[in-house]
Amino acid sequence: MDHLDMTGFLGVLVLILGAAKLLGALARQIGQPAVLGELVAGVLLGASVLGVVDSTNHVLHLLAELGVVLLLFEIGLETDLRKLLEVGGTAAAVALVGVALPFALGYGVCRLLGLETLSTVVASATLTATSVGITARVLSDLGRLQEPESQIILGAAVLDDIVGLIILAVVAGLTTGQAITLGGVATITALAFGFLVATLLLGSLVVPTLARLSRRVGLPGTPTILAVLLAFGLAWLAAKAGSAMIIGAFAAGLLLRTTPQRRDIEHGVAQLGHFFVPLFFVMVGAAVDLRVFDPFTPAKQPTVLIGGLLIVAAGLGKFLAGYAPFWFRGKKSVIGVGMIPRGEVGLIFAQMGLTTGVFDAGLFSAVTLMVMVTTFVAPPLLQRLFPSPSGHKPQAAEGLEELVTEP
User: Fold this and answer.
1) How many separate domains does the chain show?
2) Of the chain's two ends, which shows fewer C-beta atoms within 10 Å, N or C?
């Protein structure tokens, strides 16, 4: 499928978007977030069932990455930077405990099962990941992004991404036999945090000029295009600076939130998101291969056992991290559940372990099982613990109303 012609590519897009919208709508009908339906659509279309979507296809992967960049840009537009800074200490506590505790629990589980040291370290590192995209999408759909719990989750998830980059770099060095130095780790840390701070400081000077420029041009869609250019540009710069693309996109949204054209930008980016964002979640689902799990096959029973124990360690570690800020009076359970999904971030760690030979097929499958379960369990739990406020219309319904009422 890497060499799809245009006809075949269009057919696959029809299947992906059609299944995502259909199952997303069905998920809403049973009281679950649409993202859960999109993840299920990916599993059904992927290698596990129908086999029509190849999760390793480069073109689909690039479109999916555009989706997550746009999603974090949208989340940034809806996030009040002052509120985010107000919960900075609380978010930092959640992030740090949310990295240390799952790693410690995972390390204990792996050593108890007799795994080698390097395999134990890489598997434990996988448990530290958090997929901000999945939780952010659920909170947005629920109309809860402005709640203190959501701001803490977003802040902690952004910090988790930065810490995750550091851990990923360290683990990558370990798997290739490189020496890990304190100076190297400090450089990665400084680059990641420095980029975010510099972007917010410099961007506050540049963005007003862009806003005035968009008003002068006067062409339809200009604010949206300039905003998307800023989001993509900062995502690119973030990657070049050794940080994560989604941090750059999120920072772009924070910067543009205060501009006069914010509403126009939000509307335009939301329309783009209706196409690209579901592709991301479908591709995450398509990366899950259910065929590697069969508890009734003796050869695969150890995989299921290891995977089950890793699920407990992963879920418990992140959930308890929500209770780390003992001074916070809100719903700590919501914070803990919001940090649980590993999603595409966990799969990156697992794939690295496999390609470097640190993981055998069984351990890779066990880690994949952990990623899959934590990804799927969080959306319905968030829906139950943090239901939509009365009067809030789901994102899909809002989009439909816009189409009906537009002239």
Assistant:
1) 1
2) C
